[in-house]
Structure formats: C-alpha cells, structure tokens
Design goal:
The strands form 2 sheets. A 7-stranded mixed beta sheet has the order 5-4-3-6-7-9-8, sandwiched between helices. The longest helix is centred in the N-terminal third of the chain and has 15 residues, at 23-37. By secondary structure, it is an alpha/beta fold. It is globular and about 70 Å long. It is built from 9 helices and 9 strands. It has helices spanning 2-6, 10-15, 23-37, 42-46, 70-79, 97-105, 118-131, 190-202, 218-227; strands at 48-51, 54-57, 87-91, 110-115, 136-140, 154-157, 208-212, 230-237, 243-250. The model has no long low-confidence stretch (mean pLDDT 92). It has 2 domains: 2-38, no CATH class; 51-250, Rossmann fold, CATH 3.40.50.150.
C-alpha cells in the first residue's frame, strides 16, 4: 500500500528504506490503511491483482481473482494442445482473468468471454487491450446465451457457488465483493445448475466442461453432470487438498 501511495514499485522501497515519505503520499497511505482495516480487499485499494503472471486491473464491479482459480486454467491447458486452434468459452469472465490467461498461453485459440455485467465486460476488454491480447472476444449475456449458435470445444467457468447466508460472506474482503458473483441460492448450486444445463446444449460433440465449485459440493456437482449426460467426470483439488474443479466430457448423443 505504501508503494502504491508513493507511485513506486515495491522494490524501490527496499532501496530507499530511510527516505522520508512526502506528506501527500503519507496521507494517501493512511487513507489506504484505514480502508484496509475496515475490510476492503487490497486489490480494490490498489486497483490491481496478479493472476497467472498477468497484471490485471480490478474494481468493485468484479470478484477479486483467487489463486485457487489458477487450477481451472491449469486443467484447461492440459486439455488444449499448444498447437490447437480451437474455440473456447469462459462464462462469467469478470475482469477476464481466466480468458486472458488461456488466450496468452494458447494464442492459436479463439476465446469467447461472456458476462451479464456490462461493467465487468468493459474492464475485461480494457485488461485485454492493455496486455496486448487480441484473441478474446467479449460478449454480454447470461451464461451460454451469449454464445449464440457457436459450439466451443471447451467451456470453463468460475460461477457463484456460495449459499445465501453463509458466514464466509461477512469475512475479510469478501463482504465488499459483488454478491451476484458469489451467491447462488440457498444451497449455492443455482448457477452451477444453469451452467451445466446450458453447457450440455452448447458444447461441441464430446466437448469438455470445466467448472470451479465449493469444497463441499463435489457429489452434488457430480450428480448434476451425470444427469445432463456428461461422462469422464473428475475432480481436481486445490492447494489445501479440497475438491475445487470439476472436469467432464459431454457424452455422445
């Protein structure tokens, strides 16, 4: 926060540890400290968050990207060869973290990034332009609706999966994030139900679906995928050893 208030990189602070802090920068720093003490996420204070080595701009209009969501990117990259020229989709892109990470790693692919929020899409497009990533198309719409008649080979998504009333919603930082990006009904599965259903209709034959879910939702997600004719269902654990990402293939008709 001090580096941000000074407009300097953190490395500069180590080289100038004994330098006096100008009065204006100190006021900025004290203001940031007060806001952080009040629970605001650091990413909202600095306007930046690193994800997959990408420097992303974030605002209170979007969820702050989490390290565990990088597992979603890793899983997608394992399914998409580096030489691939496939069409992929990222549903509910937010600041564009997943779509931009995939686009950077797979420049031959075309990624469609969708979101219902116009503010989120504008931010994601701005991040893409600033990072020089040009193989992502941003479309506004509810989950798969923005895909139209296109049938991607892979759909990835980090949908809301927190149940309404969950005490974690009052946790540090979280209570400042957009509820629509976090909460999904009384059991936390409303958005996942919609995503699984629409993905079954929009994926290419034998296409893959990758979705992030809550640590306690493994069996419920597995049942939903099976009910919608997905096979080869597997779950990937996060750094804490909790089931975090579901991977499934759309079974042949």
């Amino acid at each position: 926060m001090l580096a941000h208030a000074l407009g300097r990189p953190a490395s500069w602070l180590h080289a100038h540890a004994r330098d006096p802090v100008p009065r204006l920068a100190r006021r900025r720093f004290e203001g940031l400290l007060a806001r952080r003490a009040g629970g605001e996420p650091l990413a909202y204070l600095t306007g930046r968050r690193e994800f997959w080595s990408l420097d992303l701009e974030v605002t209170p209009a979007v969820l702050v990207p989490r390290p565990e969501t990088e597992h979603l990117v890793e899983a997608a990259l394992e399914l998409v060869p580096s030489s691939a020229g496939a069409r992929l989709a990222d549903l509910g892109t937010g600041c564009g973290a997943i779509a931009l990470a995939l686009a950077r790693e797979r420049p031959g692919c075309r990624i469609i990034a969708t979101d219902l929020s116009a503010a989120a899409l504008a931010l994601a497009a701005s991040n893409a332009a600033r990072l020089g990533i040009d193989n992502v198309e941003f479309r506004r719409g509810h989950w798969c609706a923005a895909l139209g008649r296109e049938r991607p080979a892979l759909i990835v998504t980090n949908p809301p999966y927190v149940r309404a009333g969950d005490p974690h919603l009052q946790g540090d930082g979280v209570r400042f994030e957009p509820r629509e990006a976090l909460v999904a009904g009384t059991d936390g599965l409303d958005a996942i139900r919609e995503v699984v259903s629409c993905a079954a209709r929009h994926l290419a034959p034998q296409g893959r679906l990758l979705l992030e879910h809550g640590a306690a939702q493994r069996e419920a997600v597995r049942r939903l995928l099976a009910e919608h004719h997905f096979s080869d269902i597997a779950h990937i654990r996060d750094y804490a050893g909790r089931d975090r990402v579901a991977c499934a293939r759309l079974a042949p008709a």
